[in-house]
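Incident log, structure service

09:12 report received: a user says their structure output differs between two submissions of the same chain.
09:20 pulled the input from the user's history:
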Amino acid sequence: MASVADQPGLRRMRIQIGDLSQGLALGGSVAVNGVCLTATGVEAGSACFDVVRETLDHTNLGALAPGSRVNVERSFRVGDEIGGHILSGHIVGTALVDAIEEGENERNLWFRVEADWLRFLQHKGFAALDGASLTIAAVEASARRIKVSLIPETIARTTLGSVAQGDRVNLEIDSQTRAIVETVERMLKERGTPL
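09:34 re-ran on a clean worker, output below:
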């Protein structure tokens, strides 16, 4: 749960993170809804963060209200098990929940994505949505949409289990895919080859 206090050009957030506060030092990194933030204060069970205007304008953190639920993850340490895709917490923007398909033991979410980012997303690739790294189940390029399928564990442990149509979630794309696509595009352009 989050509490917020707005100041000119800055939002101060205090988030209840429970046991994740153990060993967290000032200046440590924590992902909040997938956004890499720096701890500016730590108390037993909670951490404080200063969020600048740039981050508020390009993520869903600006829409948080007191009591909002958020996804929280500590940075991994070298030697830790990597239980998913490697994320940096560098959000490119937000994606809009376009449609929800509920099924027995699953929840399929369709997200509308800006065209600039859609070219980096492919079927069976991955995207991070509010900090949860998820495999892309489908891409509808003409509609600028991607679909992810949530298992019961993801539904129960993340805010994606309760998002509604029209909500915005933070989007992080795979930096390696982005680097490859942009390099190939640049090389084709330099050679005069149409994209």
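09:41 both user submissions now match this output. Likely a transient worker issue. Closing.
09:42 reviewer note: The helical segments are 53-58, 115-118, 152-157, 175-190. The chain is about 15% helix and 40% strand.
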